[in-house]
Amino acid sequence: MVMEKLRILFLITDLGKGGAERYLVDLCKQLQTINTVDFIIASLFDNNQYEAETKDFNIVNLNFQTFSFRRKNKNAILKKLLDDFKPHVIHTHRFLGEFISSYYILKNCVYVCHGHDNMEQFVNFEWKFLFNKKKLIQWLEKRYLIAKKYSKVETHFIANSKHTYDFYQKVLSTKLKAKVHLIYYGFDFEKFFNPEAFRKELEYPIKLINVGSFQPKKNQFFLVKVGIELRKRNIPFKITLVGDGALRSDVIGLIKENKLEEFFELTGIVHNVNQMYSSHHIYIHSAWYEPFGLVFLEAMASGLPIVSLDGKGNRDLIVNDKNGYLIYEQDEVEFVDKIMELWHNREKYLEMSNYAQIFAKQYDMKKHTENLIYIYKQMG
């Protein structure tokens, strides 16, 4: 007898550069190797920055239109997709993906809301929201989801870090709290694994790398302060900042203001970041909020120890003095001290590099995917 394939519909805002998007692409690449699973990605907006990796995926553009509280919200493309594909699982990523999933409810379907961060729309009501239009609308969106979806069909929530798990335990109802699962990300370990990491020589300049979008929470301005401190100590260094975003020109301005142009390289978005990791010595991270941080696993798989500010979610990944250092205050002096502590002790550096790779391997996407499929079936 031929077994029916497990049909999974993923709903996501788009496939731009970001941790949630990278995770979904890697997950789907692994799902392609499993002949008992079929999947479709429904993207609310037409923005795919992984075209080479997703060329064999079934991706449907939903052409999402602005939501209104005053009328019935519809999406004909999504409705047809649900009717034709008949998913067993609807797994949403990002808040808009979760929101559009409430338009049409399938009674015999497993619903999964993936919390890639602490979605601010779920914050509990405070009276001050009455004087803040954005906060008020977000709270109304939560009420809409409760009325249109959560009161009608069982929904499971995935938190990708202990910090996010605790957040959902605070903001969800007692009934929904019981449906929150802590499931860490998986990633393509082999893509980033550098078998030659143990051969790396610690020769000046120190090559430091950071990957992330240029937005306030990523806090690349702090890395300019790190550069100032390194120069003050007459330490030859090079800091590579990978990514793009609204604050990129402001960071460039601060670099120029401090005459640090020769010490910084801003690459923009790159598609071979795995190769870039292997040519650097240490991964540095400055975000004051990081829901999880796939980049940490990628860098560790490449054999790079980590020096990072505390971003809450990354506490699950940084084992102090084993695969890196977590700095709890925005103190560039302490940050540079940890960089130099690694640099001046090759034996320590290689120990941490080796442990980083061992640590990262436990998050390999193959194992993660098998576990996720098992959990889907348990949810059903």
Q: Short summary of the structure?
A:
The protein is built from 14 helices and 13 strands.
Your description of this structure?
With 380 residues, the protein is α/β, with parallel strands linked by helices. The protein folds into two domains: 197 residues, Rossmann fold (3-Layer(aba) Sandwich); 173 residues, Glycogen Phosphorylase B (Rossmann fold). 38% of the residues lie in helices and 17% in strands. The chain contains 14 helices and 13 strands.
Total domain units? 2
DSSP summary, beta strand count:
13
Instruction: Name the CATH superfamily assignment of the largest domain.
Output: Glycogen Phosphorylase B
Total helical segments: 14
**Overall form:** globular
Q: Which CATH class of the largest domain?
A: Alpha Beta
Mean pLDDT across all residues, rounded? 94
Give the amount of beta strand, in percent.
Answer: 15-25%
List the helices and strands in order.
EHEEHEHEHEHHEHEHEHEHEHEEHHH
CATH topology of the largest domain: Rossmann fold
Amount of helix = 25-40%
Radius of gyration: 22 Å
Low-confidence stretches: none
Largest sheet: 7 strands, parallel
CATH architecture of the largest domain: 3-Layer(aba) Sandwich
List key phrases describing it.
380 residues, alpha/beta, Rossmann fold, 2 domains, seven-stranded parallel β-sheet, six-stranded parallel β-sheet, 13 strands, 17% strand
